[in-house]
Amino acid sequence: MGRTEMTLEATVNSSPTTIAELVGHRTTETFALLDEESKREIRRALLQAVCIPGYQVPFGSREMPVARGWGSGGLQVTLACVGADDAVKVIDQGDDEGVNAVNLRRLVTMSTGIDETTEVDEATLIQSRHRIPEDDMNENHILILQVPVPEPLRGIERDIRELARMHAEADYSRMWVSLYEDKVRNGVITQSTGYPCLVASRYIVATTPIPRWDIPRLHQSKFLTLFGAGREKRVYAIPPYTDVEPLTFEDVPFEVESADGATCRLCGSSDSFLVEMPGKQESWSCSDTAWCRRQRNT
Ligand SMILES: [Zn+2]
Prior knowledge:
Elements: H1 2-29, H2 36-51, E1 57-58, H3 72-81, E2 87-91, H4 99-112, E3 115-116, E4 125-128, E5 142-146, H5 160-168, H6 173-186, E6 197-199, E7 203-205, H7 215-218, E8 224-229, E9 234-238, E10 244-246, E11 274-276, E12 284-286, H8 289-297
Parallel strand pairs: 2-3, 2-4, 4-5, 5-8
Antiparallel strand pairs: 1-9, 6-7, 6-10, 8-9, 11-12
Helix pairs in contact: 2-3
Zinc ion binds at residues 264, 266-267, 269, 285-286, 292, 295.
C-alpha cells in the first residue's frame, strides 16, 4: 500500500514534464497516424501483393478515423507507403474537392506534414476510389485505389473455401459462364464499373468502382497500382508493366463507355471521361476536374 502511494505521488509530481515529454515523443513516433509496427505489417502484405500480381493478400485492417467503406483500406495503404518527401493527391469521382477526398487528404497531410496537390505532375501518391486521372502517369507515381468489394467472384460464389480453390486452381469457368449469360440476356456485357480483368495471365481481379473507360490505362502501365479493401481486409496490386486483360469473348470486343457527340460544357473536350450534370440532361462535364481546369487554362 505504502509502495503504491509513493509511486502515485511520484507520478503526480513528475507528471507535467513526463506528459510533455511523452506527447513530444509520440508526435515524432506516429508519423502518418499508424504506429510503425502496423505500417510494417501493411507494407509486408503489399510486397507480397506486388510479387504475386492480382493475388488478394489478407492483412490486419486497423480501425481508422473514417468508417469502413469510406476509404479506410486505401487510407491504410497510403499511410503505410507515405514518406516525408511525398506529395499526395486524393480524388473522389475524379474530383479533388469531394467531401470524402478533402477529409482523407486532410488526414494524410495533418498526420505527416507532407504537401498536398491537385496536379498529377506534382503528386507521388494518388489515392482514388472511382477514377484514374486522365493525365499520363509514370514510374514516380503510386496509384492507390479504395476497394469496396475485392472479390471478383463474389457474385457467383459465396463460400470462401470454394473461392480460394477457384483462385488457386485458376478455375474461372463459372466467371465466363456468368459473362456469357449476361451477354445472351442483355445483348451486351452490362458490367460497367469494377469490370473483371485477368492480371499477368493468372488472377482475376475486381477493378474497384472505376469505369470501363479507365481499364485500358492499367494494362502495361508505367505506375504501380495498389488496391486496399479495409472492410474486407485485403490488399492486391498491379505492378508496373503488367498485362491487364478485361475479360471478354474473342468475338465480343471490350468497349469503353461513350456518349456520342457529347463534349464537356466547360473545356469542350470530347476525349475525356464525361459525366452528366445532375438534374440536367445532355449537359456534360469532365469527371477529372483538375484535368478539365488545365484544359481551360492552356
Ligand atoms: Zn472539361
